[in-house]
Amino acid sequence: MCFSGVVGISKGSVWSVRFSSIALCAWVHGDPRKVVYPTDSSGQFCGQKDTINENKTILFYFNILKCASPIVLINLQCPTTQLCVSKCPDRFATYIDMQGSYRHNKSYWEYYRQFCKPGFNKPWKVRIYTYISIDVLKRCFPDFSTKNGILTVANQTTFKDGRGKTRNVTDLREAANGINNVLDARSVGMKIFEDYASSWHWILIGLFIAMIVSLLFLVLLRFTAGVLFWIFILGVIGIIGYGIWHCYWEYDHLQGTPGSDLTIYDIGFQTDFRVYLQLRQTWLAFMIILCIVEVFIILMLIFLRNRIRIAIALLQEGSRAIGYIMSTLFYPIITFVLIAICISYWAVTAVFLSTSGEPVYKVMANQTLCKYANLTCDPETFNTTNVTKLCVGAQCTFAFYGGESFYHKYIFIFQLSNAFVFLWLVNFAIALGQCTLAGAFASYYWAFRKPADIPPCPLFSSFGRAIRYHTGSLAFGSLILAIVQLIRIILEYLDHKLKGTQNSFTRFLLCCLKCCFWCLEKFIKFINRNAYIMIAIYGKNFCTSAKEAFFLLMRNVVRVAVLDKVTDFLLFLGKLLVAGGVGVLAFFFFTHRIPVFTQETPTLNYYWVPLLTVIIGSYLIAHGFFSVYAMCVDTLFLCFCEDLERNDGSTAKPYYMSASLHRILGKKELISKKVARVDYS
To answer: Which residues cross the membrane (predicted)?
Structure first.
C-alpha cells in the first residue's frame, strides 16, 4: 500500500508524510511516456524501442467517422480500432478496390496491408478504408483544405468508405471539427519553439542586462533616491509617449495601403499575428490605450505630488538600511530557487499522477445490438467468451488508462492535494523570505547607534532565526493563505464546469463568492506580511503577531494609506521602467533596427516571442529586487510606529529612529539632548 508509511508517525508530521506518499505513489505508478507516445488498440506505445512498433511512430484510425471530435482523438478514446503505422496513407483506398486488383496486382495489397492488424492475411475480410492524411501530433488526420469555399481532402470532394459507398468529405466534418485549429496551434507551437531555439542566448543576455540595471538602480537609490525615482516617473512617461508616437506613425504610414482599412472583426482569428499589424485599427487601438494610461499617470502625479515627496524621503531611509546590509539584494535569488523547486516538484508529480494507471480494455460494438458494448474486457481471453458470438464484429479494444484500485479511483483528489501542497510550499518560501528580510532590516532600525550597533551578518542571522524558531508560524500563515487560494481554484473550476448549464442566480452566487475570496486573499496576504515583520521583531507566535500588527496599523491607518501604497506605486513605476527600457532595446534588436548587430540578430518567425519573454522576465527580475525595497520600507514603517508608541524621546526611553526619519513622518520637534546617541545615518 502507498500510504502504509504513515502508520506510527506523530500527528505533527503525519500530513507531510501523506503528501510525500502521494508523490511517491505517483512516481511509482505514473509513466510520462503516455503523454509523449500515442497508444494503439493493444495498449502498446507507437515508436517505443524494442517492440514491434519501434519503427511505427504514428497512430492510424480505422474509421475516423466514429470519432466525435479531435479532442477525443488526442485523448486516445476514439471508439474505433487504432493501429501504429510508419507513415500516414497517401492515397484513397477501399477494400473493394483492393479486392478487384488483388489477383492482378499484389503490390496494391501490400500497400493496403500495412494499415491492417499485424499478421492479418485475409484480404477478402477487410472492411477499412484509407484516406489521404497527414501527421498531426503523431496521429493521422485527413489532409483538409478549403478551395473556393469548398472543403476538400487532397483536392477531392468525395471518397469511398469501407463498404464502397461514395461519401462527401463533408461527412468527415464532425470528426474533423476543429482539426484546422489543432493544425494551426501545432504550427504556431513549432514556430515558437524554433524561435526560442535560435534566440535563447540573446534572451539570457537581455535578462542579464535587466538584472544589472535593477541592481544598479538599487545601489544608486542609496544616494539619489529622489532623483532616480523622478527619472523613473519621467522615463515611464517618455516610453509611453514614444509608444503613442510610434502607434500614430504606423497608423498614418498605413493610410492608403490596400487592406489596411479592414477591421479586426473582418479578418477574424489569424495565427500569423503580423497580419494584425498591417491594420490601421490595430495601431489606433494601441494609441488610444497608451493615451489613457499616459493621462492617468500624469493625473496621479499631480494629485499625489506631496505624498510622493514623503514616500521618496522614506525610501531614502530605506536605501541607507540596504546600503548597510547589501546582502539583502541577493536574497530574492534564494526565494526564486525555492519556488523553482516547488514548481518542479508539482509539475513532475502532476505528470506522473495524470499518467498513472493500467490499460483498460472495453468491448467495441454496436451499442443498440450488443448489451456488452463499452463493458471492460480482457484481450487475452476475449476470443474464448460468448461475446463474439452474441455481438458480431465485437472487439476487445484499448480504451484508456485507469484502474479500479483505491489509488486510481481518487486520482482527481490526489491532483487537488498536489496543487494544495504546491500552494502551501510556494507561500512558505515567500513567507520565509519576508521574515528573513524583516529581521535583517529590524536589526538596522533597532540599532541604537547606526551602523556601529548593527549585528554582524544580520541577514544570515535572521535566516537562521526564521528556520530555527519561526518555521511553525510561517507554515501556519502559509497554510491559511493556501486554503483560501485552493478555494478560489475550486470556484474557478466550478464556474468553468457549470458555465453552460448555470442559471442567473448561480452565476451571481459564483461571482460573489469569487469576489469575496479574492478580497479575502488580498487581506490575508497583507496581514501575513505584517505579521511576519512582528514575528521577526519580537519572536511571538503567528496569531499574536498578526493581531498586534493589525491593531498597530489601524492606529496609524492614515500613514499606512499615504506612505505604504504610494511607495508601492513608485516601486511599480520603477519595475515598468526597467522592463520597458530593456523591452525597447530588445525590440530594436530583434527587429534588425540596430545596425551594429544586424548580422548577429537571428531570423525569427515571430519576433514578439523573444521580445515578450525578455519584457516579462525583466519585469519579474525587477520585481524580485524591488521587493527587497518594499519589504525594507514596510519593516521600517512598522518599527517606526512601534517606536513612537513605546518611547517618548526622553533619556530613559530614547527614540531609535534617525533624526531625518523623525522629521519626515510627523514629529515637528526633535530635542537632541533627549536622544542619547549619535546619528550616523
So the answer is: 200-220, 227-245, 283-304, 324-348, 421-448, 469-491, 569-590, 611-631
Res 1: pLDDT: 43
Contact 198, 600 (CB under 8 A): no
Distances 659 to 214, 261, 419, 646, 681 between C-alpha atoms, Å: 29, 63, 49, 17, 9
C-alpha to C-alpha distance for 218 and 271, rounded to whole angstroms: 41
Residues 6+ apart with CB under 8 A from 267: 275, 276, 279
- The confidence score (pLDDT) of residue 531 equals 94
Tens of pLDDT along 434-465?
A: 999 999 999 988 888 777 788 888 999 999 99
Answer with the residue of higher pLDDT: 121 or 340.
Answer: 340
Closest CA to 664 of 218, 234, 226, 228: 226
Other CB atoms within a 10 A radius of the CB of residue 559 amount to 16
With a cut of 70, say whether residue 210 has pLDDT above it.
yes
Contact 86, 55 (CB under 8 A): yes
101-113 per-position pLDDT tens digit: 555 555 666 666 6
CA 535 – CA 476 distance, rounded (Å):
13
Distances (CA, A) of 122 to 53, 82, 99, 119, 420: 22, 19, 10, 9, 55
Which of 369, 387, 368, 367 has its CA nearest to residue 377?
387
CA-based nearest residue to 529, from 589, 457, 605, 477: 477
Q: How confident is the model at residue 170 (pLDDT cuts 50, 70, 90)?
A: low
If you ran DSSP here, which 8-state letter would residue 10 be given? -
**Which helix (H) or strand (E) covers residue 403, if one does?**
none
3-state secondary structure of 604: coil
Instruction: Kindly report whether the global pTM for this prediction surpasses the value 0.90.
Output: no
CB atoms within 10 A of CB 153: 19
